[in-house]
């Protein structure tokens, strides 16, 4: 098993965590996104899969209570995104060439 870290600055966010009474939204700090990979051996059955690698991406977030959770990226809503997109050039490169 291999885990590769994609380093970013910690960001404030809201996360959706499943609970006994349904999904609960919590305040959190996202510490980064990580990729985890597992090797899958080939099937021993005739005509079975040939094996390979399965990987997934997850985020490590910390809640107000200090607990760390591993969550899927689509369970996160960042709260510090206001103004961040103005830092980038969103012009179409094909339009610039014309």
Gist of the model:
With 98 residues, the protein is mainly beta.
Question: What does this 3D model show about the protein?
Answer:
By secondary structure, this protein is mainly β. It has a domain at 1-34 and 61-66. It has one helix spanning 93-97, and strands at residues 2-6, 11-19, 22-40, 52-63, 68-71, 76-78. Strand 4 (52-63) and strand 5 form a beta hairpin. It is flat and about 55 Å long. The model has no long low-confidence stretch (mean pLDDT 87).
**Count of helical segments?**
1
Total number of strands: 6
Helix content: under 10%
**What does the overall shape look like?**
flat
N- and C-termini, Cα separation: 48 Å
Low-confidence stretches: none
What is the residue-mean pLDDT, rounded to a whole number? 87
Provide the succession of SSEs: EEEEEEH
Structural class: mainly beta
CA radius of gyration is 19 Å
Biggest beta-sheet profile: 6 strands, antiparallel
Strand content: over 45%
């Amino acid at each position: 098993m291999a885990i590769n870290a994609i380093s970013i600055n910690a960001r404030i966010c809201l996360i959706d965590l499943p609970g006994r009474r349904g999904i609960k939204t919590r305040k959190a700090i996202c510490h980064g996104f990580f990729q985890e990979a597992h090797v899958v051996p080939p099937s021993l059955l005739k005509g079975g899969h040939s094996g390979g690698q399965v990987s997934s991406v997850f985020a490590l977030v910390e809640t107000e209570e200090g607990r760390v959770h591993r969550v899927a990226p689509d369970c996160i809503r960042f709260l510090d995104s206001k103004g961040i997109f103005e830092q980038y050039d969103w012009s179409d490169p094909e339009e610039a060439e014309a």
